[in-house]
Write a structure and sequence with these properties.
- This protein is of the alpha/beta class.
- It has a domain at 38-196 and 277-294: Diaminopimelate Epimerase, Chain A, domain 1 (Roll), CATH 3.10.310.
- The protein has helices spanning 2-30, 48-65, 84-94, 123-129, 132-147, 151-170, 203-228, and strands at 39-41, 68-74, 105-111, 116-122, 181-183, 189-191, 280-285, 288-294.
- The chain has a 6-stranded mixed β-sheet with strand order 1-2-3-4-8-7, sandwiched between helices.
- Strand 1 (39-41), helix 2 (48-65) and strand 2 form a beta-alpha-beta unit.
- Helix 5 runs antiparallel to helix 6.
Length: 295
């Protein structure tokens, strides 16, 4: 009797321990690649109407190119991985994202806690458009929007840039054309001041226009002012330095030679925050390629 009671207790405890794991497994299984949305806004940056419009655009581009384009926003990516790029890869792999057997896809992840982002590509097309130069061009399309908290514009520009690069890739064009990358002393890659397609000026010309030209202009201005100045004549009597009739005590007149103004700065209450951001790092390996940085 005791053995049966002990066995029954063990079975009940085992069921209690296994049921939560079973429910968790069902929840993870339900979030398969087919159920995963193109736009997953966990940070709540988008209104429902905007999110639905971006979802439809992403779906249209994905079906046209057989390469799925994803958008994911999080409050804090460190819940998944300390590195934002690895967090993006983990999401892609965990939910088995992408199109077809090669799982063609591109994913843009935004983490709002420290304003981090990651752009990753998987599969033949995904890795190609997220290669060294092409990922730079895609990044350049959305970063200016995100730095001004324009989420809708940034995501729309990201999707359009992916569509443009995938189309160029399918047409056999050079998808790296227009990239102009500058590597800083810190090892990060920064956007050039030159617009895509504009040839860099000769270094001597740049030096003359940025350093010597302002100095020459400043010297000319100072020389002009100096020529217009007239040296004062020395006066032999103190009366020459007095304001006329200012010492006549019979005249009631207040002369103010200085005025003090107090001004108060009015702070803007728009609530928007703009960040200058920084450089980005390129990553490649393990079936992925792409970039990460701050916005």
């Amino acid at each position: 009797m005791k053995k049966r009671l002990l066995s029954l207790i063990m079975i009940v405890l085992l069921l209690v321990l296994l049921l939560p794991a079973a429910f968790a497994a069902d929840n993870v299984a339900s979030e398969s690649a087919e159920d995963f949305p193109y736009v997953l806004d966990k940070a709540g940056l988008l209104r429902d109407s905007v999110r639905e419009a971006l979802e439809e655009t992403a779906r249209s581009y994905s079906e046209a190119h057989h390469c799925k384009l994803y958008i994911v926003t999080l409050d804090d990516h460190t819940e998944f991985n300390y590195d934002v790029y690895e967090a993006a890869k983990g999401i892609f792999l965990h939910y088995d994202l992408g199109y077809g057997e090669t799982r063609e896809g591109v994913l843009l992840l935004l983490s709002m806690n420290e304003r981090d982002y990651a752009l990753i590509g998987h599969g033949v097309q995904g890795e190609a458009v997220c290669g060294y130069e092409s990922s730079w061009l895609i990044e350049d399309a959305f970063l200016d929007n995100f730095r001004n908290n324009d989420w809708r514009g940034g995501f729309a520009d990201y999707l359009d840039a992916c569509d443009r690069q995938l189309t160029r890739l399918e047409d056999g064009e050079d998808i790296s054309e227009g990239a102009n990358i500058i590597v800083g002393d810190d090892g990060l890659e920064y956007h050039s001041y030159n617009q895509p397609g504009v040839k860099e000026k000769n270094w001597l010309v740049r030096m003359l226009t940025t350093i010597f030209a302002p100095l020459i202009a400043a010297f000319g201005t100072c020389a002009t002012f100096k020529a217009q100045m007239k040296p004062p004549k020395e006066a032999r009597h103190a009366d020459a330095y007095l304001v006329p009739r200012s010492m006549d005590l019979r005249v009631k007149q207040d002369l103010f030679i200085n005025r003090t103004e107090t001004r108060t700065l009015i702070e803007s209450d728009s609530g928007s925050r703009s960040s200058g951001g920084g450089g980005s790092s390129f990553h490649s390996g393990g079936g992925f390629s792409g970039r990460s940085g701050k916005f």
